[in-house]
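Quick start: read one record
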Amino acid sequence: MPPRLSTDASLIRDPGVESVYRDIDGLELHAVVAGDPDDPLVVLHHGFPEFWWGWADYIRPLADAGYRVLVPDGRGYNLSETPDDVADYSADRLSADLQGWVESEGRASAHVVGHDWGAAVAWDAALRHPDVVDRLVTINVPHPAAFAGALMPSRERWKLNLRQWRRSWYILFFQLPRVPEWLNRRDDYEGMARFLRQASPGTFSDADMDRYRAAWSRPGALKAMLDWYRAAVQHRPDLPGITVEQPTLVVWGEQDDALLPELAEQSVGFCADGRLETFPEASHWVTHERPEAVTELILEHLEE
C-alpha cells in the first residue's frame, strides 16, 4: 500500500492556512487556522466521519470576509490525540474542548458553526457554555431536546418515533465492542467510503476518499470516532437548560437519510432567536453539495 497522504493544512495549498497543535484538556489537539488573529473568531466543527477537511471550501471565503477561522479536528479524529476511555468523548468533554479552542486564541467567545456531530457539539456548547458562543449555526443535526423527543417512546408521537428509530439503527450497532471497527476497517475502509458515496452521489471524489482514508487510518482514530456514539448512549451528562439564547441559524438538507426534516423546525422552537433555512433537494451533506449557498447563509447570519 502506498504511503498515506499528510492530512494537515498542507492539503490546502494556501500559505495563509496553517496547522496548529494545542494542549486542550490535557490532550494535544490539531486544528487548521486562517485569517488575521485580530479578526472576529469563527470555529467550524466537523462531524462523522470527516475531519477538518470537511470545511475546506469555507476557510478562505470566511477569512477573506474578515474572520479569524479555526477548524479543529475533534478529539480522536485525524491528527488530534485519541484518549482511550469512552467517557472521554462525552458531550460535556467535547463542548469543553470547543471552549478550550476559543481560549487558546486568546478569546472569551466566538461564533460557532457545526455540521453533523459538530452541530451536536455546538448545540451543547451554546447551552453548557453560553458565554463562549456568540452566534450559532447548526447544520443537519437537531437540538438535543428535539432529537431526544424523536427517540423517546410516546403514544402521541409513535409514528415519528418509529420513523426516526429506523434511521438511527446504526447508533445501536456502534455500541457493540470491536465489531464496528472491524467492519469499517475492512478492504481499506471501503464500507465507510461507500457510505459517503451512497449518501451523496457524485459529491465525494476519489481524491477526497484518499484524504478520508488517511485520516481514518491514524492510530486509534476509528475507535475514537465510534466512541463519540458510544459515549452519547453510555455517558449522558445533564444540560443546564434547553433554550438557546444566542442568535441561531439552523440549516437543513431535507433529503437527510439519518434525520427527519421535522426535527429542523422543532429545533428552531428551542431557540429564543432562531431561523431555519432549508435545501429541499440537498442531503445530510448539504455543506458539500451547496458550499457557496451555505457560505452565504453563514456570512449573512454572522454579520446581522
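Residues 9-302 form a domain with the Rossmann fold fold (CATH 3.40.50.1820).
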